Amino acid sequence: MSASTPSSAATVYGLVLSGGASRRMQHDKALIDYHGEPQLLWTYRLLSSVLDRVFISVRSDQRDEPVRRDLPQIIDAFDNAGPAAGILSAQALYPDVAWLVVACDLPRLDAATLQHLLQARDPSRDATAFISTHDGLPEPLCALWEPASHAKLLERVQVGHSCPRKALIQGNTQLLQPYTAHALDNINTPEELATLRAAL
Q: Is residue 173 in some structural domain?
């Protein structure tokens, strides 16, 4: 099912970021089971429920990992660039496409939040993003990145600044209030994992 967009707007593809090292969690966050299957697969299916074409972002050494190998992949083409590597690699491969980018560690994300982001999209901006409930700054890892965002993000990475949030702050970003409580809460540590599992 595709969200409707103005005829002049770029087509939207989905990207699940799964190339992180998960150092704080101490094991691969993409493979944690919150919903009866690996979180990466669950997130891929969720994004596929609102978009016709979805990829996962992986490092080259992850491409043959059993969960990742059966999903459509975009291999990171940038080293030491964090999540910006996945976004830039997708943009380089499909430069005329807008990307709905989602981290793989958002176990409370829901389709309603994604639909709201798509429907509130302003394709004349560089990006459309939610405001984080934790710090009031743009949330880059559940955001819609337009083709126009590529140059600024690439420029920042080339000079050693890989934080995609700063690109949203400095760019022409459409900011949205949070839509669903806790939908964008990410899980980074064993302690956060234990707390969430107790809540679920």
A: yes
CA distances, 53 to each of 1, 44, 62, 73 (Å): 10, 10, 21, 12
Residue with tokens 């943009």: 91
Residue 7 lies in a domain: no
Phi, psi torsion values for 186, nearest 5 degrees: -100, 155
In 10 A of CB 177, how many CB atoms?
9
Residue 32, domain member (yes or no): yes
Closest CA to 171 of 142, 144, 133: 144
Express each pLDDT in 108-133 by its tens digit: 999 999 999 999 999 999 999 999 98
User: Which residues have a Cβ under 8 Å from the Cβ of 188 and sit 6 or more positions away?
Assistant: 24, 25, 29, 105
